[in-house]
Amino acid sequence: MNIFRLVADLMHLASIFILLLKIQKTRSCSGISFKSQLLYSIVFVTRYLDLFTAFISLYNTSMKIFFIATSIYILYLMKFKFRATYDPNLDTFRVEFLLGGSLLLALIFSDFVLMEILWQFSIYLESVAILPQLFMLSRTGEAETITTHYLFALGGYRALYLINWLWRFVTESHVDKISWIAGAVQTALYSDFFYIYYTKVLHGKKFELP
Amino acid sequence: LSPHREKDEL
């Protein structure tokens, strides 16, 4: 563990809390893409199946359980409790291409080891899972401030993982090219969002697309 | 491309 990955994980944790706060406070999931949330749940379930095969640490185990449980809870809030506030007409990204593409890459590069296929699938999928949300954002042209804080924390956590990997490469000779490339793609997808977040929200202005 | 080492990150 290093400070970069610790802060990254805490940011990821914070993003979940911010999203839950937004949904609870406004009693609405408007502006949130159910498809992206579904993809994140799939990411967590497929990546954290090693809960049953390996024990890393209490920290590692509890974080995994937290992410799986909260992501499914968010799906429940969006699909059932606050379903009246969700507009599927705004959430129209074709996720089957993201799922299919991730699975294909995982099969190609995994030597057909099941746990490795699932892990790689989750890494590739996570790198593009924000696309339905960004697509929805581009269609509405604006976002609630709290939603932008959620997206900043979510986008920022993998950016910090990039620094964590740089640190681990230099200090431990730790190599993980698949994670590096997927993490870079994942962070790059947020660059437009980060720019608007920095120039508007952090100056007290509303998040609006030009 | 990727070693099948034990994954210790989230």
List the helices and strands and how they pair.
The complex is a heterodimer of chains A (210) and B (10).
Chain A: H1 3-26, H2 34-47, H3 58-81, H4 95-109, H5 114-128, H6 131-140, E1 142-143, H7 145-172, H8 177-188, H9 191-199, E2 207-208
Antiparallel strand pairs in A: 1-2
Helix pairs in contact in A: 1-3, 1-7, 2-3, 2-5, 4-5, 5-8, 7-8
Chain B: no helix or strand
Describe this structure in words.
The complex is a heterodimer of chains A (210) and B (10). The radius of gyration of chain A is 17 Å and the shape is globular. In chain A, helix 2 runs antiparallel to helix 5. Chain A is built from nine helices and two strands; from the N terminus they run H-H-H-H-H-H-E-H-H-H-E. Chain A is mainly alpha-helical and 210 residues long. Chain B is mostly loops. Chains A and B meet through helix 1, helix 3, helix 5 and helix 8 of A and loops of B.
From the structure above, extract its key features:
heterodimer; A: 210 residues; mainly alpha; two-stranded antiparallel sheet; 9 helices; B: 10 residues; little secondary structure; 0% strand
Report strand % of chain B. under 5%
Number of helical regions of chain B: 0
Q: What structural class is derived from the secondary structure elements of chain A?
A: mainly alpha
Report Rg of chain A.
Answer: 17 Å
SSE class of chain B: little secondary structure
| Tally of alpha and pi helices of chain A | 9
Number of strand elements of chain B: 0
Average pLDDT reading of chain A: 97
Mean pLDDT of chain B: 74
Kindly state the percentage of residues in helix of chain A. over 70%
- Shape descriptor of chain B reads elongated
Share of residues in helices of chain B: under 10%
What is the radius of gyration of chain B computed over CA atoms, rounded to a whole number of angstroms?
Answer: 7 Å
Sheet with most strands of chain B = none
Low-confidence stretches of chain B: none
Distance between the termini of chain A: 40 Å
